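retry 2 of 3: previous attempt timed out while embedding pyridoxine-5'-phosphate. Reduced batch size to 1 and resubmitted. Inputs unchanged:
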Amino acid sequence: MLLGVNIDHVATLREARYSLLPESSNAEPSPMEAAIDAKEGGADSITIHVRGDRRHMQDRDAFEIAANCPLPLNLEMGVTDEMLELALKVKPEFVCLVPETREEVTTEGGLDVRGRLDEVLACVKALQEASIKVSLFIDPDLPQIEASAKTGAEMVELHTGCFANAGDDVVGLEVSRLIEASKTAHAAGIQVNAGHGINYANVARLFEVPHLAELNIGHTIVSRAMRVGFRNAVSEMKEAMSGYPD
Ligand code: PXP
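retry 2 succeeded.
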């Protein structure tokens, strides 16, 4: 199981002080340096989310990381013409289509592929024509998986937010949902990734979910990096994931 490291919150910290001084030579920390550290810690890919409101990652980050990152880049983006235009210029290896509302603190809920099928399908096609592989960030619900299969997207990323927030009494239920969803997507020939809210403590519970190719993890790694450094935080997560059955 591969690890995609989401480095958005490195940019969150930089923007907290330097959003109005983008050209400042003092602007730190650098997402590009974090990407290099992540590789040295054993990351398999780098994920960034350029949001419509540019609250953390900026367009220039996407261009810089795509050009210089020693790992494949996964660009998360909303299904909008603006973001499609950006992705076609940045040309990351992967795009993950996510829902996006301005008010949310982080991505809440999966993309409604079923309800937005035509729109999503057109976006997937345009990205694939540019040789970008596409993932759809969806709730672990069967109708969303069926709709995702119709778009021709190569991958889905199962939203693990409900799993991560579930109390002891319902976490088993959330794991069951993920198991069912993963089996269904895999049977449909779709690569299965997962992400959101995964941390060092709960990751082992995902070992029960079959067919997971990649986890995308951000917040907990950036948080842990404050104590042990970015490289160590990434390698600790790789270690935590290493018990996943082959
Ligand atoms: N996957 C997707 C699609 C996301 O939107 C996010 C959050 O930006 C993540 C994974 C990573 O979530 P977390 O920061 O909770 O690890």
